[in-house]
Design brief:
α2 packs across α3. The radius of gyration is 15 Å and the shape is globular. It is 34% helix and 16% strand. It contains 4 helices and 5 strands; from the N terminus they run βαββαβαβα.
Length: 142
């Protein structure tokens, strides 16, 4: 089916995504930090690349020969607004920039976000909703 880079593969959403991709025949490469908890993915047949979306060199290596990028990584906790900005905004910009430079023939880039960008509610949302995040996490994921 193809090779997929998944950022945030060790997280709750990312680990379920990895399982589904494997089930559907994709080769999965995970970009994870060195001290990540791998409890949900350690026994899966995936290729690990250690690095961070805030580090250009580690992203570049992880992008080699992938056809798809599924960007799930993000900071859900931080000490201050800057912590969220570095991970959720600057890291995402780094990843997109390197995809454009080094993987111009990438078949698909999918960015996973969060309900937190809407400000939270129990109603149904679509692309027309005006987002009004109320947390640093929601603001930076928006």
């Amino acid at each position: 089916m193809g090779k997929v880079l998944v950022t945030g593969a060790n997280g709750f959403i990312g680990s379920h995504l990895v399982e589904a991709l494997i089930k559907h025949g994709y080769q999965v490469r995970a970009l994870i930090r060195k001290h990540s908890n791998l409890q949900w993915i350690s026994n899966l047949p995936i290729e690990f690349f250690y690095g961070s979306i805030s580090n250009f060199d580690s992203i570049k290596q992880a992008l080699d020969d992938v056809e798809y990028v599924m960007h799930v990584a993000g900071a859900t906790k931080g000490r201050n607004f800057q912590d969220y900005m570095i991970a959720n905004v600057e890291g995402t910009k780094n990843l997109i920039q390197l995809c454009l430079q080094h993987r111009p023939n990438l078949k698909k880039f999918i960015h996973f976000s969060t309900l937190a960008v809407t400000g939270g509610s129990d109603r149904i949302f679509d692309e027309q909703i005006k987002c009004q995040p109320i947390s640093y996490y929601g603001i930076t994921k928006k």
